[in-house]
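Model the whole thing, not chain by chain.
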Amino acid sequence: QVQLQQSGPGLVKPSQTLSLTCAISGDSVSSNTAAWNWIRQSPSRGLEWLGRTYYRSTWSNDYAVSVRGRMTINPDTSKNQFSLQLNSVTPEDTAVYYCARDWGYESFDTWGQGTMVTVSS
Amino acid sequence: QSALTQPASVSGSPGQSITISCTGTSSDVGSYNLVSWYQQHPGKAPKLMIFDGSKRPSGVSARFSGSKSGNTASLTISGLQAEDEADYYCCSYAGSNTFEVFGTGTKVTVL
């Protein structure tokens, strides 16, 4: 059974960097079939897919247009986890952030528990 | 890329069937059979209910079914039960620039 465990701060100051980590158990971040995603949810923006990292003989990342250039997703094979960094945050980035596995069918079968991140001074 | 359009709310009595629509464009729902549906109870993470437009993951009740016609996907819940009361979201693959787009969400109320 695959499980995802999120960690990271719940409060970030404006203009700083939001960093979250998602630890994987029951699967591998280096899986050749899965992709590892970040998704956020806020009352104003609803559910919003942010980006993903995946391994298909080489590592690749895809990002949503809305965060492209501001977001980085990195796999950590030594710890079997992946991370999110979102730079130059504003109050608009306040949301519940989820990590999720795409199991190979362009859908998300496993989700982390969610982390409420507030951007405020 | 705009969110897929869903009705804000749908309601039904126990035992009835309800259908939730998810309207996109020819760039997402209309071009790919890669629509998924998620159920979300308050304070919980979303749960995958349908993938590839009409397939159910192991463990999901057969009361949940999905379909698509043109740019609109649909989720039908038959034999409505109290535990089905939740928010439901669709999601579609939208090509190699946008990747994934979610719907606006529908609150299902069991009367």
